[in-house]
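In this section we walk through a basic example: taking a raw amino acid sequence and producing a predicted 3D structure, encoded as discrete structure tokens. The instruction is simple. Fold the sequence below.
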Amino acid sequence: MTEAWSPLKPEDAGFVAIARLDYIFFLEQMAEPPKVAFESRAELEKWLSDEFENYEVRPILGGNNAVHVAVIDQRFTRLEQVWVKKSYRDYRRAMKYVAEEFHGLCDLSALDADHVVARTILEGFSDSWIAIFPTYRSSNRGFGSIERKLPKARKGFGSIELSPLAAFKIMNGRIPVSIDDLNHALDDIKRQISSDNNNYLQDFIRSMYVDFSKYIEDRYS
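The resulting token sequence is shown next.
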């Protein structure tokens, strides 16, 4: 099979590649996943102030419901994230603003503004904040049925890290429908992530396989 499972199309390659690399560098250097959801904006801002010396938070489209966060850290170079309040409906426009303003990208037709943590997981947490990621529609649209089955957050959860399952979604191009497909998809993701001699990353990638394979078995067996 020659089809790339994690495509970078010419019209959006830079934006998607940078977003993926930011998360990959964080995983590689910090040996832990980046945060992708908080119970409140106060929790988000506390994480930033506690963990990083150099960061900037810029309001997007008014600033009450969406922000652009840029972290500069010598441990992993940089981390750029778009954060939105869970109840905010203009999240795609927020991502589009960042794509145009900071990356010169206007064509988002192949991409979803993906809530890295599904809003269904955060039922009852209207004040929670979620990271938005430029995910290919051909991958994101197939994850809804999976994400609806995931455990719901409980009061006092504080924050949620990028899970192997969510990482598989955002680094992928479409949904595997067989174990053979899954193996090809993982091979493609491994080409994006330098996991040699990094036990943490190897375990993280292995968890991608294990976590997604159970849904293939449930759906297609």
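Looking at the output, two observations stand out. Helices lie at 13-30, 41-51, 91-103, 137-140, 144-147, 164-170, 179-192, 199-220. The chain has one domain: 13-175. In the next section we compare this with other chains.
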